[in-house]
Design the sequence.
């Protein structure tokens, strides 16, 4: 993949991550970099990179774009001739698919900001699979979810959102109902 294609792809992913439902425009990227990183890059320079007019980045531009898009600076180069993306390990490919699925899920749950944000945060982790395995262990430990919610998100406990019951089962009858 060429550098310009990678930048276009990253704009697309960033637009999804930010909840735009579309790719970020070059101008939106320029404004976001200025606002979030206090650095500048021109829209015309970004356009030249994407169109292959400037096939190489300066080191400072590479570091700036890598920081903004949250990728390794080494990603922002043309792939070598003959490079095959199919050589990605099965686990890495699975994790990429998982991340895309989580981003899609975040979009589907956009009306529930807590769930949408949680899915996005999980997708942005470099170790998504490991986080899900950890979640499985947490859910499999009786009482742990309720205790974690008490400590980390006490406002959810009072609203009744913190039930750890594991697999859903009928609630026990109250004394007044017997």
Sequence:
């Amino acid at each position: 993949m060429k550098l310009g294609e990678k930048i276009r792809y990253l704009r697309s992913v960033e637009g999804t991550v930010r909840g735009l439902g579309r790719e970020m425009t070059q101008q939106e990227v320029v404004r976001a970099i200025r606002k979030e990183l206090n650095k500048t890059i021109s829209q015309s320079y970004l356009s030249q990179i994407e169109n292959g007019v400037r096939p190489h980045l300066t080191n400072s531009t590479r570091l700036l774009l890598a920081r903004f898009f949250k990728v390794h600076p080494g990603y922002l180069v043309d792939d070598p001739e003959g490079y095959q993306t199919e050589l990605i390990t099965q686990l890495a490919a699975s994790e990429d698919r998982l991340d895309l699925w989580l981003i899609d899920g975040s979009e589907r749950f956009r009306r529930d900001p807590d769930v949408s944000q949680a899915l996005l945060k999980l997708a942005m982790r470099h170790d998504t699979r490991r986080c899900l395995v950890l979640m499985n262990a947490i859910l499999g430990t009786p009482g742990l979810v309720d205790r974690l919610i008490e400590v980390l998100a006490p406002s959810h406990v009072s609203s009744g959102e913190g039930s750890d019951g594991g697999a859903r089962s009928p609630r026990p009858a109250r004394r007044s109902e017997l």
